[in-house]
Amino acid sequence: MFEVARPGASGRSPIVRTAVVVLIACAASLFLATPAQAHNVLIGSDPREGASLPATPGKVTLTFDQAVRPDFARIAVTGPDGAQYEQGDVGVSGDSVFIALRPQGPAGAYVVSYRIVSNDGHPVTGTVPFTVGGTAAGTPGAAGPGTAPGSGTHLSANPPGLGTPPPVAPSGGAWVWGLLVATGVLLALATLGLVRHDRRVGLAAGGTASAGAVSPQRTRTANPGTGTTGGGS
């Protein structure tokens, strides 16, 4: 008896299986990479926003949700008299940015202005107000909305005291779009391969079924010597 092969019984071709594995790997890479493309967000500060201190702190520390690039990190501290009270260089340690302050600043409202560059290349700016000497929290120029720690404000105007902002780097998400395009191409190729593979298997199975439907016929021929007929070989 002839056994009819079923479509797909032989499994997928190695090329198709490889394409499927590559697609899964690309999708996993895209899923894992997406969170890293988010901008840095300020999650804490010392002094905290709106704090009222008895004296000028020795330094200001800002903490973000991701590691901060050391290049272009800036902090400026503007006092109630409009003067700048930061001194020395900005320090970066992992997700923290800090700078020392001049001692014995006047009582009143202070504003910490910051600008960093996210890992995706975009600048992140914002302000954190605090007061010295029990004065109500305020700013030499009112802080804009969304300046609380955790907001990671993107401002069109440069915060005071930070100087000229750095040029915006090309978006780090460009490679993600490239990965999406590559994944789409691979998906199309894998789909085409599956269709062609199934078509070939279907045609082969159809031909085998047709051959099996016709039973071999034993031909009977006359034996010229005996006048009888016998089965042909």
Automatic annotation (TrEMBL):
Organism whose genome encodes this protein: Planotetraspora thailandica
Region annotation Disordered: where it falls in the sequence: 136-166, 206-233
Any one GO molecular-function label of the UniProt entry: copper ion binding
Subcellular localization(s) per the UniProt record: Cell envelope
Keywords (A to Z) from UniProt: Copper, Membrane, Metal-binding, Signal, Transmembrane, Transmembrane helix
This protein's record includes keyword Transmembrane: yes
Alphabetized SUPFAM superfamilies for the sequence: E set domains
GO cellular component labels: cell envelope; periplasmic space; plasma membrane
KW Metal-binding (keyword) present: yes
UniProt-recorded name of the protein: CopC domain-containing protein
Signal peptide residues on this chain, from the entry's feature table: 1-38
Domain CopC: 39-132
One GO term (biological process): response to copper ion
Transmembrane segments: 174-195
